[in-house]
Amino acid sequence: MAKEVECKMAIDPSLLVSLPAVISQALGNIAAVPIDKYDVYYGRKGKGTEFRIRKDGTNLVVTRKHKEDRADGVEVNREIEFHVSNGDVKAFFTSLGYTPLIEKRKVGSMWKNGDLTVELVHVDHLGDYLEMELLLEDDANDMEMRDALDQLAALRSRFGVADVPLEGRYYIDMLRDMEKWG
Asked: What fold, for 2-181?
């Protein structure tokens, strides 16, 4: 299991032209990799979302997150995940009583540098987002957490988006809200 410390923010479409070069340069001229991630979130009646199955290219990854509630717009999650190479994953989980609850698709670019991942993505129905994530050991202490938060704040400054408010809601919650009110 790993602990991920992540922040995201909605990005004005006008930044989509210049931001990729800024990110690449700030990260030491690392080239972006295209991404296309399709997630289906599953749960059981009355339990809410319990896990997701992500299709990323030809890979299937099953992920369960233990989410920590925070008020600062930063997400801290502990993840348990495993890769599935083949088979009818949907039929397997529905046979156990799980139901697909919500779908999400993200398309864009990703930069990876060690334990840091930066994504500039379009999320269907929600718009454009910049995400920054640092992976820590599951038993990371308070000082390591503060360091990760400081690193993310410094990156926001280097990318020129320090004044853009963080979005503390999870994408699935935003999508779920759209379904209720849309």
From this structure: Hypothetical Protein Pfu-838710-001 (2.40.320)
